[in-house]
Amino acid sequence: MYYIYILFSLKTNKYYVGSTDDLQRRLKHHNAGSTPSTKAGAPDWQIRYTEILPDRSAALKRELEIKKKKSRNYIEWLIQKGD
After folding, report:
1. What is the CA radius of gyration of the chain?
2. At what angle do helices 72-82 and 56-69 cross, to 10 degrees?
3. How far is CA 2 from CA 13, 35, 72, in A?
4. Where does residue 60 rank: exposed (0-12), middle (13-18), buried (19+ CB within 10 A)?
5. d(CA 14, CA 41)
6. Above pLDDT 70, what percent of the chain?
7. Cα separation of 78 and 43, whole Å?
8. How far is Cα 34 from Cα 12, in angstroms, rounded to an integer?
9. CATH superfamily of 2-82
10. What whole-number distance in Å separates Cα of residue 17 and Cα of residue 59?
11. Which of 37, 49, 64, 73 shows the smallest number of beta carbons within 10 Å?
């Protein structure tokens, strides 16, 4: 089982979209500043949205689908829809 996740940082007011097979481990990784995309941010990343997918291939495909939209509005719509 794999997950698509969207993180949000209050300090930087930014979203981050990714995929993983272990959400809690990945969140700790981001908050430790261990990823290039979140290194410059603050350790206040919070999970705002998740989707469960059957395998890594499907998760990566969905992650790219979300990223290709390049839209904060779309990300915020996904988060609202998920609540």
Report:
1. 12
2. 130
3. 26, 19, 23
4. middle
5. 9
6. 90
7. 23
8. 16
9. GIY-YIG endonuclease (3.40.1440.10)
10. 11
11. 73
Confidence bin at 20 (pLDDT 50/70/90): very high
**Between the CA of residue 78 and those of 17, 19, 36, 64, 81, what are the distances in Å?**
12, 15, 24, 15, 5
pTM of the model: 0.88
Instruction: Cite the beta strand spans of 1-83 per DSSP E.
Output: 2-9, 14-20, 45-53
82 φ, ψ to 5°? -75, -20
C-alpha–C-alpha distance, residues 16 and 24, integer Å: 15
- Label residue 15 by pLDDT band (50, 70, 90): very high
Q: Specify the amino acid at residue 74.
A: Y
